[in-house]
Amino acid sequence: MEYIDNSFEAVIGLEVHTQLLTATKMFCSCPNVFGKEPNSLVCPVCLALPGSLPVINFNAVKLAVKAALAINLNINKKSLFARKNYFYPDLPKGYQISQFQDPVSSNGYLIINIGEGKEKKIRINRLHIEEDAGKLIHAGYNSFVDLNRAGTPLAEIVSEPDLNSPAEAVAYLKELRDILVYLDISDGNMEEGSFRCDANISVRKKGDAKLGTRTEVKNVNSFKFVEKALEYEINRQIELLLNGGKVIQETLLFNSKTGKTESMRGKEEAHDYRYFEEPDLSPLILGEEFIAEIKNSITELPRAKRERYIREYALSEYDSEELTRNKEIAYYFEDLIKANKDRVEIKKIANWVINDLLFELKTVRLDQELGLDQRTTLDQSADNFEIKHGGMIPVKIEDFLELILEVEAGNINKNTGKKVLDEMLSTGKKAGDIIKEKNLIQVSDEKGLEDTIKQVFEENPNELEALIDGKDKLFGFFVGEAMKKTKGKANPKKVNEILNKHIENYKSGIRINQEQGQS
Ligand code: ADP
Ligand code: MG
Ligand code: ZN
Question: Which domain of life, per UniProt (predicted)?
C-alpha cells in the first residue's frame, strides 16, 4: 500500500461487534429479529422498566464460546458481567451490560492471508459478551427511537494492533466473518449491522517500537468503506505529522459520501464509563464438559477446507477460495464430488460450480432482487453481493450432476450446457427434459456438419478467399457461422476439424494450381 510518505507505517486494531443468531435477546425473551415494526419487540427488561431483572441467554453464551474457540481464544471458566455507563437516547437503562475485567475469553489469534501466498497471525485480545443498544432514526428535524434492537446479544472481538494496512484489516474481517457465518454464529450481514467494526488507527515511523496516538473510526458498514476510511485516515495522520502537528486521540465517523473521516467526539477513557460489576447477574461459570462439547461441535472451518481442497482435490488456491467463500457452496461442491463417484474430473466440476453455477446464481438473483432489467456482470456485482446461506442453491445435486454428465458425454456442448443451466435455475426443470424439449442435442454427425460448412462457404465466398489467402483471423468467423446455422448445437470440436481439413485442402489445392500454371 502506498501512502503519501512511505517512511511511515500504519498500525490498526479492530473491534468487531457481531450479533449472535439466537432466537431471543441477551437478557429477556423478546425475539431477536431484524426489520420488524419499531418498538414491537420490547418488554420491561429491554425497556429498562423499574424492577425488571435480566436473565442470561444460555444459547448466546454457547454461541459466544463457540466463536471464541474457533478463533483460538482461551475460555475463562469464570467471567463477570459489568455495567458500562453512558447516556444516549437509544440506551434506556443508562448503561449497557457488557464484560470488562473478566471477559468470557481471552488471548487468541486468527491466521489471515496477506497475498503472494503469505500468511500472518493476528493476535486477538479478547471476545466478550454484551448487549446491543437500540437505534435512532433521524428524519428531518425529528429523531425517533426504535428499541427493537436493544438487548440483542453481541460478541465483541478485539484484536491486538497487529494489522499494518487497510488490506490486512479487510482480510482479517473477511476471515473472521467467514468463520462466524460458517458456524451459524452470525449472519455476517454488514448492511443490517449484524457485523460491524470500529477501527483504531495510528501511524509511526517504520522501525519505531512505540505506538503512535490512535484515532477510532466508528461503525464502518462495508469492507470497501473500511478500506477507504483506513486509507484516508492513515494519510491524514501522516500529513498531520509531516506538518509538525500532533494526532489527537478522538472518535471519528467515516462519511462515505466525501470519503473522509470526521470528528465525532473526544475519545472517552475506560474510567469515563464508571464500569462496575453488574449486581443483578451472578458470575458466569462454565464447566469443562460444556466447553469440550462446544469444541466438538465445531465443523471444518473455511481455512482448513481450502487447504484440504488443494491437498485432496488438487485444486488451485483460487478455485479453493472461490468454493469455500460460502458455506453452502462448499458443502454443495463436496456433495457433488461424492455423488460423482469419480466419473468427471474434480477440476471440471469445480469449474462448473465457480464459472457457471455461481455466476448464474449471482446474476439471476441480482436481476430478481434489484429489478435490474439487464444482466449485471459478476465483476460489477461481486462487491455488493453475497449469496446468503440457507437454501439459496435451487438446483438439486443429482440434477446439476446430470447436466455436467450430458456435456461430458458430448450430448450437448458446453455453451448449450450453460443455457440449459440458466433454464434449470429459472424453471426448476431437469437438464434431460430441457434438452429434449428444446431439441438441443449436439450435432456431431460428419455428414450433416459437412453440409452445413459447405453452405457457409457458398454464402461467404469473399471471406473464404481471404482466409485461404492467409487471413487466419477469419477462421473464427466460419466457426461462428457454422454454429449459428446449427442454432449453437454443433459440436465445436468437430466443426473445427472439418473446417481445418477443408481450408488445408483449399490451400494445397491452390498451390498445386499455381505450380501447374507456372510450368
Ligand atoms: P478502548 O476499548 O478504549 O477502545 P482498547 O485498549 O481496548 O481501547 O483498544 C481498542 C483497540 O485499539 C484494540 O483493537 C487495540 O488493538 C487497538 N489499539 C490500541 N492502541 C492502538 C494504537 N496505538 N494504534 C492502533 N490501534 C491501537
Ligand atoms: Mg474502542
Ligand atoms: Zn425484552
Answer: Bacteria
